Amino acid sequence: MSKYSVVDQENCIACGACNSVAEEIFGYHEDGISFVKFGDNNGQIAIPKELEQDLEEAYEGCPSESILIQDCPFLTA
Ligand code: SF4
Fold first, then answer.
1. Which ligand 1 atom minimizes the distance to the CA of 32?
2. What share of the chain is helix, strand, coil (3-state, %, to 5)?
3. Which residue's C-alpha comes closest to atom 6 of ligand 1?
4. Most buried one in 40, 44, 52, 66, CB count within 10 A?
5. What pLDDT score does 77 carry?
6. What is the pLDDT of residue 25?
7. How far is residue 55 CA from its own chain's centroid?
8. Between 3.30.70.360, 3.30.70.20, 3.40.50.300, 3.40.50.2300, what CATH number should domain 4-70 receive?
9. d(CA 2, CA 15)
10. Alpha carbons 38 and 45: distance in angstroms, whole number
11. Which one of 15, 31, 33, 56 would you pick to mutate in the ligand 1 pocket, going by the greatest count of ligand atoms within 8 A of its CB?
12. Rounded to the nearest whole angstrom, what is the distance from the C-alpha of residue 21 to the centroid of ligand 1?
């Protein structure tokens, strides 16, 4: 099953951990707040299978639990 992910940017503390374990998935804005590169954090594009382990690692390592993962695309606001 595909995985979809977004960063809750209201909650992200810009610590840099996700980028260090999964730089192909997570990028940063100038203020250090992270975003998912696939779909520009809109949660509509599945994370490539080969990166799912990195995604899991980043999820587990996020100190503010700002990385959200689900099995279907996120609803847009
Ligand atoms: S690990 Fe979590 S708190 Fe740290 S930059 Fe990434 S999303 Fe933000």
1. 5
2. 30, 20, 50
3. 18
4. 66
5. 55
6. 98
7. 7
8. 3.30.70.20
9. 27
10. 6
11. 15
12. 11
